[in-house]
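Weekly structure sync, notes
Attendees: PL (lead), two postdocs, one rotation student
Agenda item 3: pending single-chain targets
PL asked that the sequence for the first pending target be pasted directly into the notes so everyone works from the same version. It is reproduced below exactly as submitted, 139 residues in total.
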Amino acid sequence: MLYLGYGEKEDLGKVTFSLIMQQKQYKYLFIKRFQIKPGQLNKAYELLPSDSFKVVKLSTCEDAEIRVVYKPKPGIRVKEECFYLSSFLVKNSRSKGVRLTVKEVQSLRMRPVKRVEEPADQQPSLFNENEEEENNDDV
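Predicted structure, written out during the meeting:
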């Protein structure tokens, strides 16, 4: 079992799922972020596009770091890559997903990341105002 939660319409529509799946034939990784907005009760929702895919990871984190380590092969220069869940769009459950990588993967790790939210009214400045006041006192 990958996820257990309430199936209420109001509760299920608020949860964002992130599914990382692998194509069995070519070993490509795909990522799919979606929300289930149930229109009918007692209905099975297919999350994988076809039988040629298998689930690698399923998460309900809002934002996470995905670190992919590739199998060492001759000619591969990049041995490791990092992706963030927040950089992928949230769609409906029938979407096919986005291809994450075409290289063969040795390991995959997900680590939750906290969002840093700044107040909207605060404007970034080049210099700190306190430093300017101190410099004026010295002159």
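Discussion points:
- The first strand starts at residue 17 and ends at 23.
- The mean pLDDT is 84.
Action: rotation student to compare against the earlier draft before next sync.
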